[in-house]
Design goal:
mainly beta; 30% strand
C-alpha cells in the first residue's frame, strides 16, 4: 500500500495540512456582515500578480453596488455575471494596484491547489440577505 504524500508546494490549501484557526468567539462571528449579492459586471485585472477579475456586485437597496477583486479566473465572465454570491462587506476598503478600491471580500472554498470555488446561494434568496 502506497502512502499519499501531500505536495505542500502544489497543494498549499490541502485540508490535511491546514491547522485550526484561533478561537474567535460567537461575538466575533456575528460581527462579520456576510450578505448575498448578484454579480453585475466582470472586468479583467491584468495589473495583479495572479490572474484576477474586478467584480461589481449589487447587494440590494440598503448596501448598494460594491466592487472587489478576486482570483476566480477559473470561471468565465459569462459564468459569473448574474451569479448570486456571498460577500463580507464590513472588512474595510483595500487599495489595490492602479488605485482600484476593493470594497468587500468574495467568499469561496479553496481547492488544495488554491483554486477558488464560489459559495453557492439558493436561487430564491433575495439579494442583500444576511448569511448566518
Amino acid at each position: 500500500m502506497t502512502e499519499h504524500i501531500i505536495n505542500k508546494k502544489d497543494e498549499p490549501y490541502h485540508p490535511e495540512i491546514l491547522e485550526k484557526k484561533e478561537y474567535l468567539g460567537i461575538e466575533g462571528f456575528f460581527s462579520v456582515d456576510m450578505r448575498v449579492g448578484i454579480i453585475l459586471d466582470v472586468e479583467q485585472y491584468p495589473e495583479m500578480r495572479k490572474p484576477s477579475y474586478k467584480i461589481k456586485v449589487n447587494f440590494g437597496p440598503m448596501i448598494g453596488k460594491l466592487w472587489t477583486s478576486a482570483q476566480v479566473t477559473n470561471y468565465t465572465r459569462g459564468e459569473l455575471i448574474g451569479k448570486k454570491i456571498v460577500g463580507v462587506i464590513n472588512l474595510g476598503e483595500k487599495t489595490m494596484p492602479k488605485g482600484f478600491i476593493s470594497q468587500f471580500l468574495l467568499l469561496g472554498t479553496l481547492d488544495p491547489d488554491g483554486t477558488v470555488k464560489l459559495l453557492r446561494v439558493h436561487p430564491d434568496t433575495l439579494i442583500g440577505s444576511i448569511v448566518s
